[in-house]
Amino acid sequence: MCIRDRVSTQSTGDSGRAMAQEAKAKGNAAFSAGNFEEAVKHYSDAIGHDASDHVFYSNRSACLSSLNRYDEALADANKCIELKPDFAKGYSRKGAALHGQNKLQEAHGAYEEGLKIDPENAALKKGMADVRAAGSADGTASILNMFMSAEGQAKLNSDPETAAYMKDPSFLQTLAMCKQQPQMINMLLQQDPRMMKCLSVLMGVNLQAAGQPGASAPAPAPAPAPKPKEPVKELTEEEKAEAAKLAEAKAVKDEGTAAYKAKDFAKAVELYNKAYEMYPKDISPLTNVAACLFEQDDFEGCLAQCHDAIAKGREQMSDFTLIAKAWVRIGNTYMRMAARAEGFANKEPHYKEAIEAYAKSLLEHYTVDAFDRQKKAKALLKKHHDAEYKDPEKALAAKERGNEFFKKQEFVDALRCYEEAIARDPSNHLYLSNLATCYIKMNQMGLAEETLDKCIKLCPTFPKAYLNKAHLLFVRKEFHKVQPLYELVMELPDVDEDSKKKAEEGLKRTQIAIQQAQYEAPDEERLRRAQQDPEIQLLLMDPQVQQAIKDFQENPKYAQQALKEPQMAAKLQKLMAAGVLRFQ
Hints:
By secondary structure, the chain is mainly α. The protein has helices spanning 2-32, 36-49, 54-66, 70-83, 88-100, 104-117, 122-148, 150-158, 160-165, 169-180, 184-191, 193-203, 237-261, 265-278, 284-295, 299-315, 320-340, 344-364, 368-389, 392-407, 411-424, 429-441, 445-458, 463-475, 479-491, 497-517, 524-532, 534-541, 543-554, 556-563, 566-578.
């Protein structure tokens, strides 16, 4: 009997692994076609059939990273590494997820760990190179932002030497070229002394005094005698005029902001436009006009205004932060449009536009605010998508298709239909019951029990779920769990006579099976499962139970007295039903 049970268990394992491999193959095909959402579903199915295979988590992690769901991708990568720590690709998946979260240092560490396992792994090497390039790009963007910001421009125009550079058309052309190709700035810093001088002014540090790369360090010189402070150089007439224009424009913009706060949007728009005309290098008044249009629900006008501000900002080489704010304003506008739209079909394109706008803002200038807004937009898109997918009528149709497949004994197709029904109507316990029955037919008893538990939780008064679970446990000879289920069915309020009769017959059958097991050879598999049961383990650790068991062996008279105590008798009967205790 024990050998037969083991063979059955092994067969179940083989069946589960076969189904897992089938699901994996479908996931691979979907991944190759770029259908990442579908691939995630198939890999999840594979994990449901065989959660011990690290490759399934690795593949799903790759799909989730492709969908920018980096938190979930990281969780799968960690699970993959947990299952198989020497699997180099798991570290590649972890590095990709961390890179997506912009945690470059942690991503670098993940790739390093993977390369310790497989030093020649091309994917790990490329991932590490990408992380280093991203770090370098962040540094380059930071330097370029110093050159292009309004504050940086003011510093360069106020220094006598760099002010001359800022009037030189060839130098301005060089800066424009850096704006278009940021990677050039590092090369120019090494080759063009003017660039290094400008960076020194921007940082307030004499970088050129440190010497050129590769030069030996100069010998320390004696401290020079203190020099009298040089008088601050007077600004040129042109510089004074520039500063005056900026100040005048800012004053007008502040008036516009006051009108905006008073909800006098017409006056605010007039003042903002005037401020921009006075000083076109600052595009913030244009995005403020967009804010006025936004408050008046003129969303199309707001979007057009923001795009115009971005275009003019590019022409003027405006600060990255100003352009990033314009993209955030565009994202906010699409989010408001999505909130006002009726139905998912109308909401979806607005959410997608918002997500893209926030992404462009983050490319210009990373801020936590823009990241959080993009995350919220993604969450709302998913929420409304899931809500749209739920449809009781379509769920019923999926269940009916599943029933047809079930009758033909095409259980895999039936299972998928029942899963669709559950996804479309999670509140209907009958679909869970059908799914559990399908698992039983496929010999997936563990999944069947798990599904029946969900069914019972959803509808605690549904007798069929208890009866099916009791039957499943009876087959596994877990009689100590079967009796309470049948008793519970008989106690359910308004239980139908047919279910009550089945419970009574099942209880009698179980009691007979318990008595018969007392006179049969011990069932090793049944005993093993019982000893792993937390409830049985607690009973065996109970000092009173231990004493009662000892009395049965050494002093039967005291043991009989223990059986007269209801609580102790119930505990001993449970141990007997589990096959742990034998009365002969």
